[in-house]
């Protein structure tokens, strides 16, 4: 069993999951939903997206919808593979102009 760290403040630790196989909707025919949940407040944010979005698309979605009004997360918990998470962190640090 993996120990999941406790969040010390809002948006420090987030859970990220992609819900797919949704009926296309909206003017952009979204067929998926990116769920970002703040572990501290248990607050979810649901972001419409496409199931085949790239790492850069996901990073931009996070930047524009969540990180524009929070600080950079300390940890992202996700079932995505380590290669995806590493590329996501690289892009997020690039947006914040910090070293990863």
TrEMBL record:
Q: What Gene3D superfamilies does the entry give?
A: Ribonuclease H-like superfamily/Ribonuclease H
InterPro entries of this UniProt entry?
RNaseH-like_sf, RNaseH_sf
Name the source's superkingdom: Eukaryota
Under the GO molecular function aspect, what terms does this record hold? nucleic acid binding
This protein is called: Integrase catalytic domain-containing protein
């Amino acid at each position: 069993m993996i120990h999941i760290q406790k969040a010390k403040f809002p948006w420090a630790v987030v859970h990220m999951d992609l819900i797919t196989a949704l009926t296309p909707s909206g003017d952009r025919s979204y067929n998926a939903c990116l769920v970002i949940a703040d572990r501290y407040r248990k607050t979810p944010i649901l972001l419409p997206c496409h199931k085949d979005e790239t790492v850069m698309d996901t990073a931009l979605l996070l930047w524009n919808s969540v990180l524009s009004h929070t600080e950079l997360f300390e940890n992202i918990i996700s079932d995505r593979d380590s290669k995806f998470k590493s590329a996501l962190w690289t892009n997020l640090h690039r947006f914040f102009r910090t070293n990863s």
